[in-house]
Amino acid sequence: MSTIVDFTISPLDKGESLSPYVARVVSIIKTSGLSYKLGPMGTSIEGEMDEIMSLIQRCFEELKRDCGRILMTIKADYRKDFSGRIKTKVSAVEDKI
Amino acid sequence: MSTIVDFTISPLDKGESLSPYVARVVSIIKTSGLSYKLGPMGTSIEGEMDEIMSLIQRCFEELKRDCGRILMTIKADYRKDFSGRIKTKVSAVEDKI
Amino acid sequence: MSTIVDFTISPLDKGESLSPYVARVVSIIKTSGLSYKLGPMGTSIEGEMDEIMSLIQRCFEELKRDCGRILMTIKADYRKDFSGRIKTKVSAVEDKI
Amino acid sequence: MSTIVDFTISPLDKGESLSPYVARVVSIIKTSGLSYKLGPMGTSIEGEMDEIMSLIQRCFEELKRDCGRILMTIKADYRKDFSGRIKTKVSAVEDKI
User: Fold this and answer.
1) Rounded to an integer, what distance in angstroms lies between the CA atom of residue A74 and that of residue D12?
2) Element (H, E) at B37
3) Which helix (H) or strand (E) covers residue A76, if one does?
4) What is the value of ipTM here, to two decimals?
5) Residue of A10, A12, A41, A64 best to disrupt the C interface, most CBs of C under 10 A
6) Cα four-point dihedral sign A37, B6, B11, C46
7) Cα–Cα distance measured from residue C86 to residue C92, given in angstroms and rounded to the nearest whole number
8) Are C77 and B10 in contact (CB under 8 A)?
9) In this predicted structure, what is the pLDDT of residue A1?
10) Global pTM?
């Protein structure tokens, strides 16, 4: 539970509307059992680095079935001995404003 | 209102705990009047591209006062003739799951 | 000269081949007078933060003329009292391998 | 060979100078046998998605040994039926300027 990742995936050959593709990916994330949170610009996922990377790999394989070009962006934040940060990171900031 | 940006800013010379620095930045975003949403891995901001870029510039100037090295990541998503997407992008996906 | 930015810009409504769009953007970067370096996954630009941000804004306005949806990613690395890093950052690593 | 990734890794608890840490990571990339190219803002790596992800995992494990907080950014570009793009992507743009 020591890593949070922000993850986006965008087919480039399917035109402007991406939500059907994002929905296929979010269904996979949902069934993974990892904590996640949808945001307007990406999905945050918390777990161990190897679990998250293997989940992202499965999301990519799903879209590769019918997409000819795919962009992914991943930002990962690992912090030793911390967990549950998908909730506490936002409140740690809000408490200081 | 046609652009959403995901924005993160991290001083590299202040150790592991970044929330005091992030809080200073979020205070500036809050007083800008633009729509925003805090997330565990970044802050989403909606507006016109030039407004958002000038706001990010002000956030950077604030941390530059006492930070010797700063990383920023920005993901911008412009869509012509769309607005209010800071809310609708998530529900467009949720409706399809 | 204290900031380096890695910059990518991708229209989402123009299909798989993006090099004609990237070329229009690189022409603008070229005439800016700032140091830059093309890479396979983005263009590095060195300068002051405000110069670079205003250049990126001009690149965006150019593609906005005919693109309905545009993604941009920006990674910025500011380091006080350093410059010329578009060359020295790579050699600092190579010297240590 | 259908994917290129831009990869950065930054410890947050080791102060401003990161090149010793980046050098340890680049040594691992070098011995992987995959095509790579160092840039001022990240390292580009070309291969199949699963090979690259497993390599990035090994780079992370190396820094995890002595770093308490680590940020990684990954941008991946998959294109079906293309390869060798670590060289051709730049020349495709340069030919059009």
Assistant:
1) 17
2) strand B35-39
3) strand A69-79
4) 0.95
5) A12
6) positive
7) 11
8) no
9) 72
10) 0.96
